[in-house]
Amino acid sequence: VKERERGGAYAAAGVDIDEQERGLGQIKTLVRSTFDRQVLSDLGSFGGLFRPDLTGYVEPVLVSSADGVGTKLRVAQMAGDYSTVGVDLVNHCVNDILVQGARPLFFLDYVGAGKLEAERLVQLVEGLVVACRENGCALLGGETAEMPGFYRVGDYELVGFIVGVVDRPRLLDGSRIEPGDLLLGLPSSGLHTNGYSLARRVLFERRGLTVEDAWEEGGTIGEILLRPHRSYLRALEGLLGHAGLHGLAHITGGGLTDNLPRILPPGLRAEVDLGSWRVPLLFRRIAEWGGVGEAEMLRVFIQGVGMVMVIGPSDADAFVRHLAGHGLEATVVGVIQAGGSGVNYLGSALGGLA
Amino acid sequence: VKERERGGAYAAAGVDIDEQERGLGQIKTLVRSTFDRQVLSDLGSFGGLFRPDLTGYVEPVLVSSADGVGTKLRVAQMAGDYSTVGVDLVNHCVNDILVQGARPLFFLDYVGAGKLEAERLVQLVEGLVVACRENGCALLGGETAEMPGFYRVGDYELVGFIVGVVDRPRLLDGSRIEPGDLLLGLPSSGLHTNGYSLARRVLFERRGLTVEDAWEEGGTIGEILLRPHRSYLRALEGLLGHAGLHGLAHITGGGLTDNLPRILPPGLRAEVDLGSWRVPLLFRRIAEWGGVGEAEMLRVFIQGVGMVMVIGPSDADAFVRHLAGHGLEATVVGVIQAGGSGVNYLGSALGGLA
User: Fold this and answer.
1) Which of A213, B26, B170, B198, by CA, is between 20 and 30 Å from B302?
2) What is the distance between the alpha carbons of residues B72 and B76, in angstroms, rounded to a whole number?
């Protein structure tokens, strides 16, 4: 978050000066709270400076990923609540590099808007900061762009970029996955950041609900849709380097169907038992109300599984206990088989719905 | 550029399958052409893997920056030409870390669109790839998001992130700048990526021009407005570590007025002689046709100066000769003075216009 860039954008926005300075002051304090001694630059320099502490690394490899929040932003706009999408973005990026065994070093954000409002911007940055702190990652820089006529007033685009590090001997690339390995599914907190176009169509257009309407399990539709994408870093970091951990797949857009194959070596397939975990109610209601078939559900939505660990079968109990200690109820959802490719589904999760 | 992410977005776009596969194939080939042996991952993995070759570095420091192209994108859209904005983005980011003495390692992009068109996406990526190759930087990853209803059909948002490295003893942070140092201005190629909202208002709304209209120096208005942001890496990399180079300022949004002070130590000011360089005609016409005062011009536009070097006075001739060898005609535009802060302007560049 370059102070001047933020300042420039603010000034251009014609935000009231007091509000602007209050907002800038808040943002500076927030962002600095993510810094540790690895950060050498203060706010306002052209680029952020980061000297990674690589003590003990044999062959450090940088791992990097870029992502956006997608149309979940539209729900934030409908609910008038931008406090959670920053958390979504950081946690999504953290998981994307975690699956290769990396821990995060630093994060940068980009906010695009039709008109920058100080309060909204503080909310967005606050979410980024909270998640960066939780994941031990510095919010090293950022850019705020006001582009009237490109974005509608009230719309905010949010893009993130993460850099982490993994020691090459501990790099997870799927090459250790073998037949007989188990798939351990880790529960998501909700939809995470996937399938919001279809979810909105079904819930708001087809079913006629609003973000203020009550959700049958408690809270509102807006609240359940805005639950932040979960970071699996704290639960999994103690298992990185464990010989029994053969692979990790972050389940995002494309669901289990598209994301599991990304880590499978040639000649192996994943067999997933759809009856092995309870798909959360929100997904089942979307399928029911939208008349969405199971194959489409499994490609558009994560169906309650945010991360899949591929593990040696003898370590399953130990891993499940470890994860329980981090509040995650993990379930064996399938197995690796020789032959074929991609994902084979057994049974159905939706059979008992009607 | 994660192959699957691109593929997913393509599929969602409902792009014709043949066109889609042709586009994806082209993009994969293009992106791979930026890889060297420091890149360990192939396309399709969750995060990009990069093992920097840091032979000879005493204390490597990572330098990172995020940026967008801003409303120059609107001109690309008007001209139906997205081949140059990718170059803009990479070169802008390269300059942003170059001013701290860093050379680029890798780059990631984000493309947001209302509807992804294969041809446009290839054009965008082609620009990124050309500039990454010219700057010796890997296009390590990327994300493509189709967000209908958020972006208009035909609109493309383009965001970039760069990571580079500098050896700490060679870090440029402005601390070596002292009174008597000279400011050496390096010519821009045009507006670079700054001031497009005002430029469009003056040229298109006030003056009634279109991108197809002829520009008085040759070519069209669209062509001169879309000239890519210049990278100063190749011209300056041979000077990094030179004892006479005390500071570098990338002149971007905010112009000389806001960007020079970013590197000045407390108690020093920059005195800039506005008669010392010839402001290119495009800037002068915008001032004339728009009735834009000089102070505003100097804050909104870069006025033909894309980079300022702060140098010891005895090295000026050698630096000017070195830059001439790279095709850059550098000019002494000012001097560092003790006392005060910010930029003092002497004379006027616009005096002789009428």
Assistant:
1) B170
2) 7
